[in-house]
Amino acid sequence: MQRDYVDFYLHSGVSLEYLLKSRLAAIAPTLIANPKSFSSMLLLAQLPDDQLPAPIIKTIGIVDSLQRCQTLVTSLHTYADRLKMLISYRNGAAHAALVNEAEASKDLAAFVGATDLLIRDLDQPREPFYGDFIHFVNVRLDQSRDEAEVEAKAAIASAAAEFRRRYPDATNGWALGEALHGWLLERKYEIERYDCPACNSPAMLHGDSDLEWDADVDDKGNISGVLPIVHFIPSQFECRVCGLLLRGRQLPAIGVPGDIILRDVDPSYFVELSNE
Q1: d(Cα 152, Cα 253) in Å, to the nearest integer?
Q2: For 94-123, how does the pLDDT look when each residue is reduced to its tens digit (9 = 90+)?
Q3: pTM (2 decimals)?
Q4: Which of 131, 138, 239, 270 has fewest C-beta within 10 Å?
């Protein structure tokens, strides 16, 4: 049985890395080149796939591949923590046949979920890809969604009880200033306000933000200007009033979208402007 867990981490890590790099290469092969190897970038930019001198091509690793793909497939953030755990085992402990069997099921769920996201994003037909495993994948995906919802609801119920214990005379939604002290001091664009489902107090969504420019095009197709837009990708929910804490795949269970569009932003926060 232990051998099965070891094999899972080793093979799933390889499979995940190939899929992540396939997603990047679908845009441009140079996106998987090691940034420190100009010759590799040049070869990937100039030569067709069937003429690449494979032994001298240097590419990025699985960690960088995952980080880059999260920008392209934002829903991958849902599985990011678990995938990093899987990668850690694949790169280290699994080679010594040391794995945590109790965590393997959760890592499997993250691997299946991430794989399905990448397959869909690559616009590949699922049944030919999974073959005889298609039924297992569908069942595992359903179970994963159910488990995340159950975990989120249990956490909300526990947090609501803790709120009533801490503040028995307060009503839901009470603005508890001292509990939220400092929340507005958090770093800009890495935190967004979100009402807590347990106590209705203003709470926090932690995440990462990416800036892009949206062109304003007139009826004749001419660009008349550009507007900065920020994509905020939530990764964690925190309420400092009742203590509710949710992460990753639990967030959709409380209605948190995978990508929140922020407008009226300050682009200078993302772009280092020259003083010249």
Answers
A1: 6
A2: 555 556 666 777 788 888 888 988 998 888
A3: 0.55
A4: 131
